[in-house]
Amino acid sequence: MSKLVVPIRGMHCRSCEIILEDNFKKISGISRADVSHKTGIADLYYDGRQPTEGEIKLAVENAGYKVGSPEKKPWISKDPKVYKNLLFASLIILLLYGVARWTGILNLSVNTEKTGLLVVFAVGMVAGISSCMALVGGLVLALSARHAELHPEATAMQKFRPHLYLNLGRIGSYALFGGIIGVLGSALRPSAGFLGLLTIAVGAVMIFLGLKLVEVFPALQNMTIALPKSISRFLGINKENKEYSHKGAMLTGALTFFLPCGFTQAMQLYAVSTGSFAQGALIMFLFALGTAPGLLGIGGLSSVFKGQKAKIFFMAAGLAVILLGWVNIANGSRLISVPVSNANNVVSAGDEQVVRMTQNFDGYTPNVFTVEKGRPVKWIIDSKTNLSCASFIVMKKFGIGKPLQKGENVFTFTPTETGEIPFSCSMGMYTGKFIVID
Predict the structure, then answer these.
(1) pLDDT tens, residue by residue, 111-136
(2) Same domain for 363 and 261
């Protein structure tokens, strides 16, 4: 068997490899094709007749690429226009942040004494434009802006279509998985440490995508994070031009069910409490449906900008995604490290140390307690609402990890060594600690 090495220009992902490999295998005589977007090389194996240059060139161009060695891009851009656009983008982000703070969008919540299907839908609408936007919305913005940047020739509708499929996959998976957890209960709930690592990983991906969008580091344009080629083929993410496919968009939407967004987890807890497939499915379906307008809106923005406006928008999107990614890394690290906070409220009752804490929409009050080593601690948590990430309390040291019921919840443990015992919500956003002394 003979081998022919072909340099290819323009590849940037696993789907590029799959599309080219499929095209090469259509050429008579070629039995195997191994393409790497990282090296920009295609290894073609053939028996007997050697494929002609014209056949190879046609196969490459039909896939949307060119024959030739990839251009090496510098790590730091020297183009003054890039930094000028970055300045405008920074001002836009500062302005939007100021408006969000002034209008109170960053602190939106649904405060109600009842939980019902209308409340679930309302929670979804709030989540779609507030706290969940930091995780799911940030990821959607990064992917949508990158897709629009790679396909400037596409119409606004063609650029927007992926978001319709992403939200369709999201709504469908939420209904399915909501029904499953409604039946199986909390057995499928991952550990706090796993959620922390997952949040950090998603934050890192967001920062990477954001850095590609700001164009300050051109060398990153040829780098990508992708599924292994075998998995991509199995899922069918190779049927359409470049890196987009309807299946891929729907899969991305489906997987957001497992991202540790606070509002999502609160609704998952509600679904678990029903003990019913139908009710669990309906709760998560309505929640995902409520988030759709906000997520479609943030994704749709990347579909309408063109030319110079598009460049500035993509940079602004990149900066926003980097900031949101950093927030998620900070939140995730709290789940696997010691938090910092400030207060104390401990009362002695015989041999016990009684600790009272209130859980509300915005966390725990007070959230730092000084207790003595060797004496039992009776931890009483007054939960005011279960429609918040804070309603799931996690203390890894003593194996505590469960949803809080509305009203008083009591936990007991006995600290056996001095130091700090951290606790948090399941997303790591709201934290606290016990300080154990002799």
Answers:
(1) 444 455 776 787 677 666 655 555 56
(2) no
